[in-house]
Write a structure and sequence with these properties.
Length: 223
């Protein structure tokens, strides 16, 4: 009975809801850390891309300025047409570089917003993990104390059982010239030679050690 209780306590210790809660808190924390890391990585990539776009843009701007200067000195209309065409092309390229840069900047801003939120959440998740560790520890200690309590009760129970047994044993010894236990052979009590019936023997075999005694002389019987 007490052993069953101990077994249950052990099971409860392993399956404490606080343990599951800590696992969940740690997962939240790890997810948040991963989210921040991937956001920061993407920010770095975007910074690189923006740098490249800027360099590209300034190359194109210089090219455009050069073409526009050339345009002022051109006389032949065919040459002017070709230059005009080139200026259009450069202008279109500059537009697409600008659009690209804008998209990078917008994405970077969005990531900034999520990073601010994630860093705020991180502080909370860290606090939640600490709290979860503390409450698991508390719950574990509580279960351990419960188990110690049962362990002590079992100890006391074993001691009183021992006392009861030895008192009963001594009583039988004093009543039967020093022989408290008798062996049963061929359904006969070795102490008082009482003939036991088959059903009596069957019943006695089912008894606990303490209660398995001869119905006549009350010696403890062994089979
Ligand atoms: Zn007997």
């Amino acid at each position: 009975m007490l052993d069953t209780t101990l077994e249950q306590l052990r099971h409860q210790f392993i399956t404490l809801p606080e343990r599951e809660a800590l696992v969940a808190a740690q997962k939240n924390l790890a997810d948040c850390v991963a989210q921040i890391a991937s956001g920061e990585t993407r920010q770095q990539v975007l910074e690189g891309e923006l740098g490249k776009a800027e360099a590209n843009g300034s190359v194109l701007r210089k090219k455009q300025e050069r073409l526009e200067l050339q345009m002022k000195t051109v006389i032949a209309s065919r040459e002017a047409e070709a230059l005009q065409h080139e200026i259009h092309t450069v202008s279109a390229e500059m537009n697409s570089v600008d659009e690209e840069s804008l998209a990078f900047m917008e994405e970077s801003e969005r990531i900034d917003v999520t990073l601010v939120a994630a860093r705020g959440a991180l502080v909370q998740f860290q606090a939640a993990e600490i709290a979860a560790i503390a409450s698991l520890h508390e719950a574990e200690e509580y279960k351990k104390a419960e188990a110690r309590d049962v362990e002590e009760k079992r100890q006391r129970f074993a001691e009183t059982l021992d006392e009861k047994w030895s008192a009963a044993y001594e009583l039988r010894r004093s009543q039967h010239k020093g022989i408290a236990v008798a062996k049963v052979k061929n359904h006969v009590c070795g102490g008082c030679h009482l003939d036991l019936s088959t059903s009596e023997v069957d019943l006695l075999k089912k008894e606990t050690d303490e209660n398995r005694e001869c119905p006549n002389c009350a010696r403890w019987l062994v089979f």
